[in-house]
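Anyone up for a design puzzle?
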C-alpha cells in the first residue's frame, strides 16, 4: 500500500476515533472529520462512501484485531477455557477503542460482527457443520451467552475482572461439552 494512502487512512482513523469519543456517529459530518484529519473531502470519498461506511470498516478492523488473537479456531471446541481467555483478554486489551467505536447506537454491532467472524473461523475448520441447525444454535448460544455474561457482569466500567473472565471461560467449557454431546460426530483434536 502506498505510504500516502496509509497516512491518509491513519489520519481518518484517528480523527474518527477522536470524534466518536465525543459524539454519536450520526452527528459527525464528513466535513468535520476531514478538517480534523487534515484531508480534503475528495480524499475521504476515495476510500469511503459516507460516515456509516467508514464506521463499518473501522468496526470490522477492530473485531478482526480481536479475533486475530485466536491462533487456532479448533480451540473453541477443544480448549474452550483457553479460547475464551484469549478472546476476552483481547477484548480487555482493546476495551477503550472498542468502547469508543461501538458506543451508542453502534453497540449491538460488536457482538454481531464478533459472532460472524468467530463462526467464519469455525466453519472454515469444520465446513460440514455450516447447515447443522443444532450445532449452529449451540454455537450461537455459546458466543452470545459468553459475550453478554461477560459484558453484563463487569465489576466496573474501567476494568475487566480476571475472575469474570475465568467464570465465563469455565461456563463456555460446559457449553462445549453440550455441543459435543449433542453432535457425536463433531471432530476434536483432543479425542
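Challenge accepted. My sequence:
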Amino acid at each position: 500500500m502506498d505510504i500516502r494512502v496509509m497516512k491518509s487512512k491513519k489520519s481518518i482513523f484517528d480523527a474518527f476515533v477522536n470524534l466518536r469519543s465525543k459524539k454519536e456517529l450520526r452527528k459527525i459530518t464528513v466535513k468535520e472529520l476531514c478538517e480534523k484529519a487534515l484531508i480534503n473531502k475528495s480524499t475521504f470519498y476515495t476510500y469511503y462512501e459516507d460516515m456509516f461506511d467508514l464506521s463499518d470498516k473501522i468496526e470490522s478492523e477492530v473485531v478482526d484485531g480481536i479475533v486475530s488473537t485466536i491462533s487456532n479456531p479448533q480451540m473453541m471446541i477443544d480448549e474452550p477455557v483457553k479460547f475464551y481467555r484469549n478472546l476476552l483478554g483481547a477484548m480487555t486489551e482493546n476495551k477503550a477503542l472498542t468502547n469508543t467505536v461501538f458506543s451508542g447506537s453502534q453497540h449491538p454491532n460488536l457482538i454481531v460482527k464478533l459472532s460472524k467472524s468467530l463462526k467464519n473461523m469455525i466453519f472454515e475448520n469444520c465446513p460440514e457443520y455450516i447447515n447443522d441447525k443444532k450445532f449452529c444454535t449451540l454455537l450461537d448460544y455459546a458466543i452470545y451467552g459468553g459475550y453478554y455474561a461477560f459484558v453484563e457482569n463487569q465489576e466496573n466500567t474501567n476494568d475487566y475482572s480476571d475472575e469474570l473472565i475465568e467464570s465465563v471461560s469455565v461456563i463456555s467449557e460446559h457449553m462445549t461439552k453440550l455441543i459435543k454431546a449433542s453432535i457425536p460426530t463433531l471432530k476434536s483434536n483432543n479425542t
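A detail worth pointing out: DSSP finds ten helices and no strands in the chain.
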